[in-house]
Amino acid sequence: MKTLKKILLGVLIIAALLVIIAFFLPQQVHVERALNIDAPAKIIYNQIVDLHSWDKWSKWNQIDPEMKIEYINSGVGENAGYSWTSEHPNVGSGKLMLTAAVPYDSIATSMDFMEEGTATGYFAFNEEGSSTTVTWAFNTDLGFNPIARWFGLMLDSMIGPDFEEGLQNLKVVSETILAEKQPVCEIRDMPAVKIVSIREIVQYAEIAEKMGMMYGELLKFNQKENIEMIDVPISIYHKFDGTIIDLECAIPVNELPENTTDKIQGREIAANNYVHADHFGDYQKLGETHQFIQEWMNKRQLNLNGSPIERYFTDPQQEPDTAKWHTSIYYPL
């Protein structure tokens, strides 16, 4: 009996010592990993700020293929997020939110692991030349729970390898997008812009010829009215019905004309949010990028609210190499 009492006393003393020591262990835990990726920050940033893309690179999203996800605010951009539910012991249930998103610079996150506690994190992007260093960090407050503080000593070795694997996957995804020149969709704000324009119903087969004529007329009109062109030419696709297009060709200007004609009008395109993607290559393949944007929007349950816009950064008469032609496409939300 005395021996049992000594054992119990010893256990109590050890337990008390562990509790006392725990209060001297770190209350705050920080886990961080970084990796250099041979791709622009824009590509990498958009694989993270779009939560639908996490299943391509995040190990946590790949552990349980049966995991149920519900997206919040379309799952894209600041204040977006998702909640997840899984029967897998290493996944569980919780919610992740993007609490801040500064394009191509940083993304802040908050995580609620339900009974397991909460945490915050961030991604930081440092672009230098043709590559970007991505830092992924995790922070949590263990409070005054002595067991949690002892557990905190193992968090870096537990979470760190998952960060490393995720960053390696992100590297493969981002570098593949760059190498294959895949479109990258993102949600952008576009300020209001004044335009002079011509709107006509044209046949698809004649679109290149018609656009050349319309832009020529607009340039002559601007020169006559002494109106300054302030940005690249744009076209607005009001309706596409088989081989018939309701097309508006426009030039952004510093001020609306005082005098207009039956054919040439001046108006302002209101500021709005747009889904944007760049197209590099021949105009004949623009339809492929339009389809990519439409599928991207459908997956995220984003609705078109207006007419798509194309902006042309390359003059085909000045640049014969079609691979260098740059067009930006915008779908209003």
What would a concise description of this structure say?
With 333 residues, this protein is of the alpha+beta class.
Description:
The longest helix has 25 residues, at 155-179. This protein has 333 residues and is of the alpha+beta class. The protein is elongated and about 70 Å long. An 8-stranded antiparallel sheet has the order 8-13-15-14-10-11-9-12. It has a 7-stranded antiparallel sheet with strand order 1-7-6-5-4-3-2, covered by helices on one side. Helix content is 30%, strand content 35%. It folds into 2 domains: 25-178, START domain (Alpha-D-Glucose-1,6-Bisphosphate, Chain A, domain 4), CATH 3.30.530; 186-332, Multidrug-efflux Transporter 1 Regulator Bmrr, Chain A, CATH 3.20.80.10. The chain is built from 7 helices and 15 strands. Strand 4 and strand 5 (106-112) form a beta hairpin. It has helices at residues 2-22, 41-49, 59-62, 146-152, 155-179, 207-225, 286-299, and strands at 28-37, 68-72, 81-85, 93-102, 106-112, 118-128, 131-141, 186-190, 193-203, 234-241, 244-252, 264-269, 272-280, 309-312, 326-332. The protein starts with a helix and ends with a strand. 24% of the residues are buried.
